[in-house]
């Protein structure tokens, strides 16, 4: 049996009186792409910091590739590749030198130039000091460093920050290629669509706890999201619309009637019913989006003080 | 393996720093310049001149050593490169000791160049004193190592570069600039409370007198220059005791820094 890529039990970190991570049980199977999703401040970075032994847990255990993250870290770090959050480069050393150092530290025989080419850094750029790099180039270099030694597990903390849409797509392709080679990939993001595009499974963390862990399809099914149908009407309906099967939250506002339809044919019933009472001038249908799903998992859970938690849709990218 | 790679990387990285080269150049010009000025204006034998130059150098060199060392860890911590390094196999111990070796090497190179320049000035101007060049270099080197160790230790316990700078300035003030004053206050206090008689120098007071690395180095060198023994009956008149103090300074602050750094949260 292959050891899971990541395995934590009751992982907890308290800073002062505040629980940043609260009894996290996480298992990422070998060969899996796992998206670690949550709003900023939900505990993603603290979790990854504990996995990398940057921060020691208050309670609980964590292992990766069957090795304890702290006691066996040296052995472990030879077999994983990491792009940490808020990483920095050596301004005076060239990009190539960075990769060479990683090769030396990991004791492998990778060709730095091949890795640099793979992440899209030209030989010219690779020879320049990293202090002259743009954010996107730094991100590419950090990836090249992470790929040294063909790691069995890639840990990428917010890897798309600083990448343009093109770079984000290349990153997805790279993640998929690494995964096909056999690597497990664990990456965090606060942007849902990026996780959705590649992850086999996602875990949504909020307030230091998992609020959901499953495949995207399963997570979507778990929510009776339905579709929001908005009808522009000539005048307000004269009669009460009454109860309609599989239609919820009917609202009548100025010049519009909205309803959430849980089944496809409920939309037609809804439209027909409204047309019986008034004239419909326009129809707009919004399928429940992943953003809604994310928002509902991270805001509806227990309290209302996290309404700002609905950080979604790439607004911050 | 990892320690060596960290040390080499640190040397390569720090070696490209213009500030550090400026500092090294300043050491050389400073010691050699002072020496030349003293040698041409004061009519003293080489051994006395070496001693005077040493006294001045032990005040200036610690600033440079502390400056060279204090950013060893905090610099990487603030830039975030420490996170990259710690994501790779090197442990915190590898990083700390690799950094220590890199910075110490840098400091020793600067010290040796400065000392050789000084020696050349003295020997050419006075035609004497070549024998003292080795102890001159040796004790300045040990003192430089001690202050690099103090600086790296401070860097390891500091969460930010600003904090490391503050602690470094504090260390310099206490150990170098104000030690004479501190010593006098202790002495006066001891007399006041009747612990010692006025004018007497019990061993513990003598020990406090040579406790800072700069004073230990001075004492050791003066003992050698005045023909003292390595192992005399009185430890304060022999070379081994101040040398031992220097060695303790080289080891203890770094070790203390490591113990803190080992369990520090890097976030």
TrEMBL record, chain A:
Pfam families: ABC_tran. Keywords: ATP-binding, Nucleotide-binding, Transport. InterPro entries: AAA+_ATPase, ABC_transporter-like_ATP-bd, ABC_transporter_ATP-binding, P-loop_NTPase. Residues 6-232 form the ABC transporter domain. SUPFAM superfamilies: P-loop containing nucleoside triphosphate hydrolases. One of its GO terms (molecular function) is ATP hydrolysis activity. Belongs to the ABC transporter superfamily. This is ABC transporter.
Automatic annotation (TrEMBL), chain B:
Coiled coil: none annotated. GO terms for cellular component: plasma membrane. It comes from the Archaea. One of its GO terms (molecular function) is ABC-type transporter activity. The chain crosses the membrane at residues 49-69, 100-126, 132-157, 164-186, 239-261. Keywords: Membrane, Transmembrane, Transmembrane helix. This is ABC transporter. It comes from Halorubrum californiense DSM 19288. The lineage of its organism: Archaea, Methanobacteriati, Methanobacteriota, Stenosarchaea group, Halobacteria.
């Amino acid at each position: 049996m292959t050891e899971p890529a990541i395995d934590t039990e009751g992982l907890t970190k308290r800073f002062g009186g505040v629980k940043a991570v609260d009894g996290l049980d996480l298992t990422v199977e070998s060969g899996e792409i796992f998206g670690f999703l949550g709003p900023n401040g939900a505990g993603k970075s603290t979790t990854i910091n504990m996995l990398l032994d940057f921060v020691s847990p208050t309670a609980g255990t964590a292992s990766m590739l069957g090795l304890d993250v702290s006691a066996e870290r040296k052995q472990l770090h030879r077999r994983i590749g990491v792009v940490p959050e808020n990483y920095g480069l050596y301004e005076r050393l060239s990009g190539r030198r960075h990769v060479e150092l990683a090769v030396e530290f990991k004791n492998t025989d990778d060709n730095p130039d091949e890795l640099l080419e793979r992440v899209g850094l030209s030989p010219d750029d690779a020879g320049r000091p990293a202090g002259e790099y743009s954010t996107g180039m730094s991100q590419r270099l950090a990836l090249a460093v992470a790929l040294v030694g063909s790691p069995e597990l890639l840990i990428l903390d917010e890897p798309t920050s600083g990448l343009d849409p093109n770079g984000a797509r290349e990153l997805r392709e790279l993640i998929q290629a690494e995964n096909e080679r056999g690597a497990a990939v664990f990456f965090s993001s606060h942007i849902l669509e990026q996780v959705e595009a590649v992850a086999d499974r996602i875990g949504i963390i909020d307030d230091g706890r998992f609020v959901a862990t499953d495949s995207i399809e399963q997570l979507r099914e778990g929510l009776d999201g339905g579709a929001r149908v908005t009808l522009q009407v000539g005048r307000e309906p004269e009669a009460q619309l009454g109860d309609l099967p599989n239609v919820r939250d009917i609202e009548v506002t100025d010049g519009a009637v909205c309803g959430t339809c849980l089944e496809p044919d409920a939309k037609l019933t809804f439209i027909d019913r409204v047309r019986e009472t008034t004239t419909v001038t326009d129809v707009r249908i919004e399928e429940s989006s992943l953003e809604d799903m994310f928002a509902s998992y991270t805001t509806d859970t227990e309290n209302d003080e996290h309404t700002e938690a609905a950080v979604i849709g790439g607004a911050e990218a | 393996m990892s320690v060596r790679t960290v040390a080499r990387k640190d040397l390569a990285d720090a070696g490209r720093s213009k500030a550090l080269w400026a500092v090294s150049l300043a050491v050389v010009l400073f010691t050699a310049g002072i020496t030349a000025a003293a040698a041409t204006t004061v009519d003293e034998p080489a051994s006395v001149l070496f001693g005077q130059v040493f006294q001045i150098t032990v005040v200036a060199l610690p600033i440079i050593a502390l400056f060279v060392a204090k950013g060893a860890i905090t610099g990487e911590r603030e830039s975030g490169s420490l996170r990259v390094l710690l994501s790779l196999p090197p442990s915190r111990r590898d990083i700390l000791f690799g950094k220590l070796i890199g910075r110490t090497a840098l400091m020793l190179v600067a010290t040796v160049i400065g000392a050789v320049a000084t020696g050349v000035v003295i020997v050419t101007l006075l035609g004497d004193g070549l024998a003292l060049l080795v102890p001159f270099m040796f004790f300045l080197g040990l003192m430089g190592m001690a202050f690099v160790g103090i600086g790296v230790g401070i860097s390891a316990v500091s969460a930010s570069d600003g904090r490391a700078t503050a602690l470094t300035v504090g260390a310099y003030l206490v150990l170098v600039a104000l030690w004479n004053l501190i010593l006098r206050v202790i002495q006066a206090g001891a007399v006041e409370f009747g612990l010692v008689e006025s004018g007497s120098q019990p061993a513990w007071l003598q020990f406090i007198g040579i406790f800072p690395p700069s004073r230990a180095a001075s004492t050791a060198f003066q003992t050698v220059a005045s023909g003292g023994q390595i192992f005399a009956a009185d430890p304060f008149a022999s070379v081994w005791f101040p040398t031992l103090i220097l060695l303790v300074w080289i080891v203890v602050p770094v070790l203390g820094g490591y113990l803190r750094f080992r369990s520090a949260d890097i976030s």
